[in-house]
Amino acid sequence: MGGIPLIPGDLKYTQDHVWIRVKGDQAFVGITDYAQSKLGDIVFADLPAVGEKIKYRAQLGQIEAINKVTQLYSPVSGEILEVNDELQFSPELLNQDPYGKGWIALIELAKPEESHSLLTAEDYRKLIDGSS
């Protein structure tokens, strides 16, 4: 941990440290490297249910670290197509590979235009540089 957080340029970000990777009318969602570093060792991930319809900014799940629990809010509206079941057995993937094996959910976008208002990598870097 520590150092400069990784912020991939091909993703969009929320102000509460969730990333989204849009591919067509679907999007993978997860937490940022910055978020996992601030949380510390993650011990549990409460994931949404497949088939659940989620609204923009509604609670998507929660992540429990050793000393705190944080709520996750959806960056978009849509239906949960898939969740990362690996996190049930290996929640540490959120710490180890937040942009890869630590993804949280795959969402079918109900309103793809919602992703246009999210932060770019550059905007997100400015946000966390101001809060560090």
What does this structure look like?
With 132 residues, this protein is of the alpha+beta class. The chain has one domain (12-112): RNA polymerase II/Efflux pump adaptor protein, barrel-sandwich hybrid domain (OB fold (Dihydrolipoamide Acetyltransferase, E2P), Beta Barrel). Helices cover 20% and strands 33% of the residues. It contains 4 helices and 9 strands, in the order βββαβββββααβα. The strands form 2 sheets. The protein has a 6-stranded antiparallel sheet. Strands 4-6-7 form a 3-stranded antiparallel sheet, with no helix packed on it. A hairpin with a 3-residue loop joins strand 6 and strand 7. The chain starts with 11 loop residues before the first strand and ends with a helix. The mean pLDDT is 95.
Short description:
The chain is an alpha+beta fold.
CATH-defined superfamily? RNA polymerase II/Efflux pump adaptor protein, barrel-sandwich hybrid domain
Strand content: 25-35%
- Mean pLDDT, to the nearest integer, reads 95
Structural class by helix and strand composition: alpha+beta
Fraction of residues in helix:
10-25%
**Major sheet, described briefly?**
6 strands, antiparallel
In the CATH classification, which architecture applies? Beta Barrel
Reading off the top of the CATH hierarchy, the class is best stated as: Mainly Beta
Poorly predicted spans: none
Total number of strands = 9
Oligomer: single chain
Shape: globular
| H-E order | EEEHEEEEEHHEH
First-residue to last-residue Cα separation: 14 Å
In total, the number of domains comes to: 1
The name CATH uses for the topology is OB fold (Dihydrolipoamide Acetyltransferase, E2P)
**What's the number of helices?**
4
Mind telling me the C-alpha Rg?
14 Å
Q: Strand order, biggest sheet?
A: 1-2-3-9-8-5
